Amino acid sequence: MKKILIIDDEVRVRQMYAMLLKEEGFDVRKASDVPKATELLLRENFDLVLLDIRMPGDGGKKMYEVIREYDPNLKVIVSSVYPVEEQIQSILGASAYHDKAQGIDDLMVKVKEVLEDKRVRPIET
User: Fold this and answer.
1) Which CATH number fits domain 3-115: 3.20.20.150, 3.40.50.410, 3.30.10.20, 3.40.50.2300?
2) What is the pTM of this model?
3) Fewest C-beta atoms under 10 Å: which of 25, 37, 40, 102?
4) How confident is the model at residue 58 (pLDDT cuts 50, 70, 90)?
């Protein structure tokens, strides 16, 4: 069973993503901020991280840096209200990008494709 970490400061988003991912058979953990997510990364192994950019301060960017230090090959889907082009400019090298306005079905397709290595972008250093 693939394990996914959802990092988003919005409770409603975390709950909705977790519910839908669990229905698809994924093992899911949730974190609302950088310290909680970092603690989970240190305790558990994950196959994928869903990362919100727009968190208090530079939370999303900071968390991406932590993820890359922890495991440069961990797959990350950046998920934000920002258009994908802005997400790419903000965080380079993610496996995929998701505009929350595209809806949950689009996100689920990206999750499955990334986990199957169909959408993975090369990690830029």
Assistant:
1) 3.40.50.2300
2) 0.89
3) 25
4) low
